[in-house]
Amino acid sequence: MTQPPKPDPARLRHAPTVALVRRGPEGPAVLMGMRGAKAAFMPSKYVFPGGAVDAEDAAFSLAVEPDPVTLQRLAIVPRAESRVTPQQILAAALRELAEETGLLIGRPGESPMTGYAEAGLMPDASGLHYVFRAITPAGRPRRFDARFFLADARHVQGDPDDFSRACDELSHLHWVPMAEARRLELPFITEVVLAECAAMVAAAG
């Protein structure tokens, strides 16, 4: 029997993640879900929606690009072997958010992106704010060049509690008070992102 190829430990995949935050009278809450127990990467851990950039993401246009600072930071220290553009990373972030949660951040328009096409929307990256970048250390079986973004749930089109269109990659999707999120089973990098996002939310007032 032919065995599937093993992941190339030297291959880095671009992977955007979105920390979606909702403000309320009891303080900000962040949307999180739990990865499956049999997942190859971070099993049974609570994470933010996100995933790897696909080749198809290059074909998705954005209704609006993010602020100049976010674009500049996305372009810093590009890897010479990578041809992935900042726009492709942003499109992947919104696509993964739509796939894993069913939530759309868009404006009226036409797009072939799943979820957006059916809703008559075009993905809108203007609400994505760059948090930071993290690269999986060498020697790991799966390595990612990850970018983390913060977004306000006010930009979501429709009901932010409606996860009926979400795929099954994340279970137990729910809004977690930021002050309580650290009690969940989190990967270390998610703890770091959570702290950065909490600081950004507090600074914004």
Walkthrough of the structure:
The chain has 205 residues and is α+β, with helices and mostly antiparallel strands. It has a single domain, classed as Nucleoside Triphosphate Pyrophosphohydrolase, CATH 3.90.79.10. Helices cover 22% and strands 25% of the residues. The chain is globular, with a radius of gyration of 17 Å.
The ordered string of helix (H) and strand (E) elements is EEEHHEHEEEEH
Largest sheet composition:
6 strands, mixed
What's the domain count? 1
Helix content: 10-25%
Instruction: Count the E strands.
Output: 8
Low-confidence stretches: none
Shape: globular
Average the pLDDT over all residues and give the rounded result. 89
Task: Evaluate the radius of gyration.
Answer: 17 Å
Cα(first) to Cα(last) distance is: 59 Å
> Tally the helices: what do you get?
4
Sequence-ordered SSE layout with sheet pairings:
Layout: E1 12-22, E2 29-35, E3 46-47, H1 68-75, H2 86-101, E4 106-108, H3 116-119, E5 121-123, E6 129-135, E7 143-152, E8 170-177, H4 188-204
List descriptors.
205 residues, alpha+beta, Nucleoside Triphosphate Pyrophosphohydrolase, 6-stranded mixed beta sheet, 22% helix, globular
Task: Give a brief rundown of this model.
By secondary structure, the protein is of the alpha+beta class. It has four helices and eight strands.
